[in-house]
## 1
Amino acid sequence: MNSYTPAMVATNLENVRKRVREACLQAGRKPDEVRIVAVSKTFAVERLREAISAGQGDFGENYAQEMRSKAEILKDESVRWHFIGHLQSNKVKFVLDRLWLLHSLDRISLAEEINKRAADLGRTVDALIEVHTTDEATKSGVLPNEVLPFARALAPLEHIRFKGLMTMGPFSDDPERSRPCFRTVRELQAVLRRETPDHMTWDELSMGMSSDFAVAIQEGATIVRLGTAIFGSRSATT
């Protein structure tokens, strides 16, 4: 996927939708149960426009200021912005006004800052708790055995709606290595549904990327985050 042509994004999106649909049917699920988020970090706005023209509405960004810049350029487009990277508390102000869903809530201090700024804006923010399910130190998230107390501690925050969980599988060429991570999160979802207040809903599971999304769908993913499968290699970002 290193050679880029303007038609590539539309072609890739068509292939991705087909593969997601096939994975859903093989897992006995309805294709409309899974939302595709196009991970557009570092890619030029022109590629996002090509995806929008091909019917893509959900985009995921990892860097607060990059998301703010793209959101401003594309403010007249029907785009749902997902923030999927590690969010620093002092960068919340850059994303909150355009944010549709935060995937990476992993600290009480971050939740408190979001809650405060959302209150100032008179809005409520939808968020997922990020779960750290691998032994890779480079990944963020709440450890599985700490997710329930973490969720309970966040329950009083009135300007955040807790919608579900997010995780990343290990860096591997074998998608099956991600299955235990995804299964852990699905099991945590069941615990949270039983053990947290009714106003906290846990219907969304954001898990699965270009290399392992079929396994994620088998394990219950409702959101898959696909970058290179849609936009191609990041070795060329124009």
Note: The chain is about 40% helix and 20% strand.
## 2
Amino acid sequence: MTIFDVRPEAGLQRAPEDDGWVAASHAAVSAVLREPGWSSDHRNATTHAGVSIPEIAGELLSKVLVFMDAPDHTRVRGLIGKAFNPRSVEQLRPRIGELTEELLVPLRAAGRFDVINDFAFPLPVTVICELLGVPTDDCEMFRHLTRDLAVILDGDVTAAQLGGAAGAMLNLTAYLVPLFEERRRAPQADLISALVEAEEAGDRLSADELLTTVALLLIAGHETTMNLIGNGMLALLRNPDQLALVRARPELMPAAVEELLRYDSPVRLTIRTALRDAIVAGEMVRAGEQVIAVLHAANHDPAVFESPDALDITRDAHRHVAFGGGAHYCLGAALARTEAQIALAALVALPHLELASDEPVWRPLLMFHALASLPVACRPAC
């Protein structure tokens, strides 16, 4: 049995190698994400629930926001949170719309394109680069570097992948440090300038935190949104009744995005460590034991979602856990929602849109559910 064979009805059960636990029900996953007494720092674990984290990777991850615990997590998240709150993100909506249309002009003319590589990657990576203040001409470089770095977030890291990630981090450091110095000399109205200012305040952001925070924003700022757009478009194309419905009723798009997040979560799992003994779904989890919270399983729990394996864009899917929960609820959730709403609305408006391949290619990742490509056609030429 693999982690993804577990059913929501199992609640909490031992990991495949009986080392740690797997939470699959909505209640069990919500408990480890939202209740106090759980750590995101892998260094607190005495078991590893079948997911291998080399010690050196654990040290690196401890400097990344998503693997921090309070008070460091609270402090760093507070510094960047204002840029990603719903009000700030709403101000970006016109620009996201402009970028969407710019990308679609040549794709409509071609009549055939790859949703991932031609659209779902360049849109969010351009948005996050503009928000940070990174030259958008360098976006393609970031794609390769962040792909190599993202495997560390994926959890099951091999020595070769760790070496590639270390090299990518060195290259990213060589790029970002001069950019930080440039912003110190001449601040601009961007997030990097704000973070550099916070670093100079002394006790709010260390040099390492500045570097890892910007690296994380570059990775997470486009990776999960790209996957949401790709997975969501694939789901709609495979469910033509739902595609027709959202075309006929565009006002359903916000609800459709929530259902697509539930139906095929871009992030499939996250990991927590018990800081003290805890009862979860009737089982005793000892301090130091890891729990893999399978978000995808929780989002298909029939106790919460009726007919969970069916795509229904009219359902109330707001209880999904695709963005996690608790203190570590996804910082970029509002931005991802906005980008997906705009991007998917533009894609579904293309006439005669259809899959150009019966078997889309998936990337071999554990934590992320991510398409490598999604060829589509719009016939006749749009």
Note: DSSP finds 15 helices and twelve strands in the chain.
## 3
Amino acid sequence: MFGEVLERFIQNRPIAVMVRVLLESFLNADQIDRWFDTVRHAQYTKEILFSSIVGLMLHVVCNIRPSVHSAYRHSEVQASVVALYGKLQHLEPTTSQGLVRYIAGEAESLIHQIGGTNPPLLPGYRVKFLDGNCIEATEHRLEVLRGTKAGALPGKALVVFDPHLGIAVDVFPCEDGHAQERSLLSAVANTIQPQDLYIADRNFCVLEFLFKIHQKSAFFIIRQHGSTPYNPLTSLKFVGKSATGDVFEQRVEITAPKCQTLEVRRVVV
């Protein structure tokens, strides 16, 4: 599956051989197909194996092939290209999410075994970076779109990155490319565990989400959105300097949509 991807590096970069072994272990075709059978809902395997789709998309993502059609022409897939695109079109978002979680779980176990984790950013907490990713706009292949400058957005995703492991550990895909990131936060909230610490930008400063984090005995460091209301309990107090300026903090109170209140620390740089 990874031959063309890493062959160019093997001669001058032997470490690529080790990477290849690890990747083929994580994405072993038989193992991937067995996993797919445990998570699929409406989809089924007939002429095109799920592992074949993963292999094709890997070549596109790694820029070995410029498009899915090009990867198909250089593959051993026996089905027609129409069947391939039909398979891709009906790939369930939950399958994509499950694949990320599955690979992350396999990788986490190995990373811990070889002592490959990064130093913890904050000991005692599992830090998670939460950010959004808009899939690039599609080309104007349909005639009705050729007179417009804007491209159709095929999707959006929220991604959770674990800096201790150095890998993405979860993804929340959405087929609506124009959906707001905050519309996916309820799905993220369902996965929060005690002692998680979420770090995110102001787009995720949503009161309901902040309270759900607190209710699950987790924590957050999220940039304040300009429209987020708060009630100051103390005045700003100078607490030190940082590389980007003076640092102040104060105690404030925020109120949830259902009128619950929560006291938090507001930091100003």
Note: The chain is about 35% helix and 20% strand.
